[in-house]
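Entry for the shared binder. Reason: the reviewer on the internal report wants the predicted structure included alongside the sequence.
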Amino acid sequence: MLAMQYRITLPADYDMKIIRRRVETKGPLLDDFPGLGLKAYGIRERGVDGSPVHQYAPFYLWTAPEAMNRFLWGPGFQGIVRDFGRPPVEHWQGLGFERGLAAGATPRAATRHSEPVPAATDPASAVEGALARLAERARKDGVHTTALGIDPRGWELIHFTLWEESAPSSEPGDRYQVLHLSAPDLDALPRGRHW
């Protein structure tokens, strides 16, 4: 599994109805994209859930690098480049994935929490602790799915969770509204630890 996200920060006076219409019309185009475990079409709106910005920030879980490459070098991502410029694309090696108690529901919210692995910390211990938290999070009420990835270049762990409604206020990280979920190969994402 590979995790990927690009975050497009928009002007403070940007009409977010434009993004909502974009997702409504273009979102279903990836509903049958081979190798896409899931794409959560996330947005943040300035002043909502503590967000300081307007942002379009879809998050992806890919079953294989070939699928991610087909998207990045194909017409889907080229539409993003044409309309918004080329955003940096963050990506992480998958460490774990779990389906939650609300996996059958349509998620309406998401959280993204990143945490550095300090230089003095054994990376294997940090990953084990993060995997234990992933399993705990999957058992929380309202969790649709939750994933854990790592960027070993910068030693950053990423926790991404989809929620049936809203995330609990105790949940750390950025909060997103999920406008659409494409999940053609959700069942192909292996559960649990990825090694």
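Summary line for the report: The longest helix spans residues 123-138.
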